[in-house]
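A quick aside before the break. I want you to see a complete sequence-to-structure record at least once, exactly as it would be stored in a machine-readable document. Don't worry about memorizing anything.
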Amino acid sequence: MSEILRTSSLDAGYDSRAVIRDIQIEALRGQTICLIGPNGAGKSTILRTLSGMLAPVGGTVYIKGQDIRAQRPAGLARTLAVVLTEKLHVNMTTAYEIAAMGRTPHTGFFGRLSPEDRRIVWECMAAVGAEHLADRDFQSLSDGEKQKVLIARALAQEPELMILDEPTSHLDIRHKIEVVRILGELAARRGLTVILALHDVDLAVKSCQFVLLVKDGAIAAQGRPEDVIGEDTITRLYGINGASYNAVLGCVELENPLPPEAFVAAGAGTGAPVYRLLNRMNTGAASGILFENDVDFFVARSMGLTVVSQSSFTPIGPEKTREAARLLEQCRFAVDTGFPRGVLCQPNLDLLRDAAEKGLPVFSLRSPEDCRACYGDAPVRQLGAVSQLEEAARGKKADWVHDAK
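That is the input. The structure line, written in tokens, reads:
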């Protein structure tokens, strides 16, 4: 892939005052590059400087090997398209007419659209899934629909590079995914280079080939997401308290620092919804024995729960079982999340059955048949869904408060 944009010792800012210093970026054809960082970090300033809307405070931006300041606006508009966060306020203008504005660099002084220009506009609207909006008044469209039309307008310039400032802001999850998918497909199919800023870290990590982490007036790190984003990277970048970014799952989990009241025996992803439910209930939780390659292990660890961990694909020995038993004794109730049964997981079931026989409240999310097969006549309460656990557990907590009085 050949280079489309490069910076050299670039300082970006306003009125000769640098906000971000020493920006070093090399963007290749067909590449998607994302800037992520907290509000006010300077992402928009960088993008405006890369697009020529702001003059560099220092250093140089090169577009196709030429200093951007030496390029004429009309010629630059055939290479570079920009989509900003500012809302476009127009009256009595259709979505097609908005998209057609992108042909301005190609239509000459009078701005008349040729049949070829119209074909390109329709093709661009189809590329973003907006052709059905063509005759609609632009102001009547939803934010997601408007964003598609604005991307179509930028695409109608037939650029080689597109710069977008938070194109998913104010969009619902469906339209966020659609916009990111569209940009990825344009990069892959057309060789379009996309540089954008996103607040959605999970979308950025999962959709972009290269990320730049912006904080405190500098590029804190840059590279491929899998090389740059670690367990604590996002927490440090945004200064997050009370939550942790899970690099394996690509999402943020709210931490649960409360002393454990619930012992949750889980596995194969069955525990995650239970952990989150207990957190919403303001109830501390601990997890039973979890294998270190299990998705529940990563979720529980991100939430800061006490976890008894076991090396992957190895039998659970007596030491780990005793550790889990001591943890279970500290809890007021236990939950069987319905994790898959098997030889490796049997110690968790044995712990729950013994606890139930000793009088500890144990709730199971297994089917009635599976519950009987696991626990026999032990007094385990079978629940039909995770949602029923909240009512059952709250009832038990009320009993404990009453008993304490």
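Two observations worth writing down. The first strand starts at residue 3 and ends at 14. The chain has 16 helices and 19 strands. We'll return to this after the break.
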